[in-house]
């Protein structure tokens, strides 16, 4: 698994793929959070907080994480290296987990520079004691969990097609539905009697729980379980694939 992880990470960082996606993420965040062109502008809040950042970032991840993962298996299929990879002394599970870990690492790298946002509001705030540090910590934990889960979903999406565009659209669709879909359904009148149960199935409920500063083990376990489920689906897919 480590060899697969190193190989994928070197591809991401050795080409324009990883750095470009990280730069796009940071550029969009910077423009929307620190300028007057959007409602996410941190400086227009009645009090300084990173709530806008933690609301915006999952939306960007829905689009950017599948862009990172879309080539992970499709490129192997189309270059005929997948058959060679399968002959190596590694299991299908190690192949999948190595690829998930590499994509996850790229997403985490994109989050590291955003700590400057916290430093910025600390220095420009009139009273730094009013900053909700527990909420910020919980929100970063939530973003890490979302990063892991979206990476697993994206790798699965890449495993089901030889076409990168199809993999990209599938990854975006799966991520969007799981993040927002169940909350949308819970707000529909026809599901009023089971609204809360529907809401708890989706990512947004558990992300909001962590973002509130409540580091609940159940929410962390939820994200890890979903990630594990999609890794199992990826393993099943490549085991039954005729390339």
Q: What's the story with the biggest beta sheet?
A: none
Topology pattern, helix = H, strand = E: HHHHHHHHHHHH
Tell me the number of strands. Answer: 0
Mean pLDDT across the residues is 86
Label the structural class: mainly alpha
**Domain module tally:** 1
Strand content: under 5%
Residue windows where pLDDT falls under 50 for at least 5 positions: none
Q: Could you give the distance between the termini?
A: 22 Å
- How much helix, percentage-wise, in residues? over 70%
Shape: globular
Please give the radius of gyration in angstroms: 19 Å
Separate helix tally: 12
Topology:
Blueprint: H1 2-14, H2 17-33, H3 51-69, H4 74-78, H5 81-86, H6 92-111, H7 115-124, H8 133-159, H9 164-186, H10 195-201, H11 203-211, H12 217-239
Helix pairs in contact: 1-6, 2-3, 2-6, 3-8, 3-9, 6-8, 6-12, 8-9, 8-11, 8-12, 9-10, 11-12
Outline the structure in words.
With 243 residues, this protein is mainly α. The chain has one domain (2-239). It has helices at residues 2-14, 17-33, 51-69, 74-78, 81-86, 92-111, 115-124, 133-159, 164-186, 195-201, 203-211, 217-239. The mean pLDDT is 86.
Produce a short descriptive summary.
With 243 residues, this protein is an all-alpha fold.
